[in-house]
Amino acid sequence: MPETILALEDARLTLMGNAGPVEILKGIDLAVARGETLGLTGPSGSGKSSLLMLMGGLERATGGRVEALGRDLTGMGEDALARFRRDHVGVVFQSFHLIPTMTALQNVATPLELAGKADAFDRAAEELDAMGLGSRADHYPAQMSGGEQQRVALARAAVVRPDLLLADEPTGNLDGTTGAQIMALLFDLRDRHGATLVLVTHAPELAGRCDRVMRLNDGRIEA
Predict the structure, then answer these.
(1) Mean predicted confidence (pLDDT) in 67-80
(2) What is the pLDDT of residue 179?
(3) Whose C-alpha in 66, 72, 129, 170 is 20 to 30 A from the C-alpha of 7?
(4) Distance in angstroms (rounded) separating the CA atoms of residues 117 and 42
C-alpha cells in the first residue's frame, strides 16, 4: 500500500476580512500518496491556492489537522515550518517570484545556500542545465522571457530535491506553446526526483496528465 505523504482531516481556513471572518476552506478531508500527481481544479475563489498553501505549510490551518511526511504542520512553530519547507517542499507560482537583483544561477542556488550546502552553485548549475538554461545562468530575470523565468523558478523548486512539489497555476502567465513546454518540464522534474506533485490549474490538458483530479467549489471538495 503506498505511503501517505499528505493527510488533511477536517482542515479549515478562516481569515479576517474588512467585514469580519471569511471562511476560505470548510472542512477538507484528503490523503495524497507518495509519488502521486494530484490536480486541483475549480472556479476562481474556490480555495484551490489556499489548500495548496496549507499543504506546504505556507498557511496555517485554523481548524482541523494537516500532516505532511508524518509531521503535524498545524502544531509547528514558524521556525520549524520554515525549516520543513526549506528541506522538503518546492513551490512554483504563477508569478515567478525571482529575485530581480540576482542572476538565474544565484536565484536557483539561494535555497541551498540558506540550507548551508557547500555545493549550492554546482547543484544549481546542474539544475539549470536540466532545464535547458545553462547558457542563461549569468542573466538576470529582466533579461529573460517569461518562459525562461518560469524555468528558473522550476529549477529553484527542484534543486532541493523536494519530497513535495507544489505548483500554483504554473502555466497561467504563459502562451500556449511555452506553457506546454513548462508542463512537460514539470512532469519530467517529478519523474527525475520522484517528488509528489500537487498542482492547481485551470488547464484541462494539464489536469488530464494527473493521476487524480479534485474539484473544489466554495471551500469544499466537490468531486
Answers:
(1) 92
(2) 81
(3) 170
(4) 39
d(C-alpha 200, C-alpha 194), whole Å: 19
| β-strand pairing of 164-168 with 63-68 | unpaired
Determine if residue 12 is left, alpha or beta; phi over 0 gives left, psi from -120 to 50 gives alpha, anything else beta.
Answer: beta
User: Could you give the residue ranges of the DSSP H alpha helices within the chain?
Assistant: 48-55, 78-88, 104-114, 120-130, 146-158, 176-193, 204-207
Query: Locate cell 542573466: which residue?
Result: 139
Matching residue, cell 523565468: 149
- The end-to-end CA distance of the chain, in Å, is 23
Judged by phi (left if over 0) then psi (alpha if -120 to 50, else beta), residue 196 lies in beta
Q: pTM here?
A: 0.88
Q: Which residues on adjacent β-strands are paired with residue 26?
A: 12
Closest of 60, 56, 111 to residue 89, by C-alpha: 56
Q: CA nearest 172: which of 104, 58, 93, 54?
A: 93
**Selected residue with higher pLDDT from 205 and 219:** 219
Cross-strand pairs, 168: 200
Q: Output the CA–CA distances (angstroms, integers) from residue 124 to 107, 131, 172, 177, in the order listed.
A: 9, 11, 25, 26
| Nearest Cα to Cα of residue 88 among 182, 185, 6, 201 | 6
Q: Distance between CA atoms of 44 and 144, rounded to whole angstroms? A: 29
